[in-house]
Each structure stands twice: as structure tokens, then as C-alpha cells.
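Progress against Task 2.4 (sequence-to-structure conversion) is shown through the following example record, which the project officer requested during the mid-term review.
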Amino acid sequence: MCEVFAGQDPGRYRAVNRSVRIGGHSTSIQLEAAFWVLIDEIAASQNFSTSRFLSTLYDEALQINGSVSNFASLLRTSCLIYLMSKAQHPGERQEFHIIAAE
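C-alpha cells generated for the chain above:
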């Protein structure tokens, strides 16, 4: 069983830094390469660029929760939610309601 996980391409879990602009500030986010692939896919599914998706997600989380203490973890768990939704509804377009930033 572990061969499926342990034998994966090391490039999938290689740390990748991306510079982004969130809340008017430039910052860097470090995630494993596999998460960036999913984040790009989620953004495209919402007709957003990845940068706009990240900024919108951050703004919405801030609005809902009052703060965002660990944005990288929020992104990882968002990827899990996306994958779980795809698994529960195979073949369907994933609809997530994102409030567009004005």
C-alpha cells in the first residue's frame, strides 16, 4: 500500500515558492508542487487567474473569519475540499461560490 505513496515522483512534493500580491501586499507562498497544480486547476474552474483566485480567497476568509492565521494551510485544505467534492460528484463541473473582489 505504501508503495503508491512512497514511490511517487519526488517532484510532486518539492517545495515551490510563488510570489503573489494579496491584500495589496507582495508576499511569497511556499507549497508542494502538487498543491500548486490543484490551485491552478481550481482557479481556472472559477475563470480566475491563480493570482486573482488567491487574493479573492484570502479576502473572503478574512471577511468570514476576521483573520487568516495560516494561508498556506487554508490553501492545502481547500485543495482537499476540491478533491473530495470531485470524488463525490465525478464528471460534474465543480461549483464553488466565490465573491468577486470589487
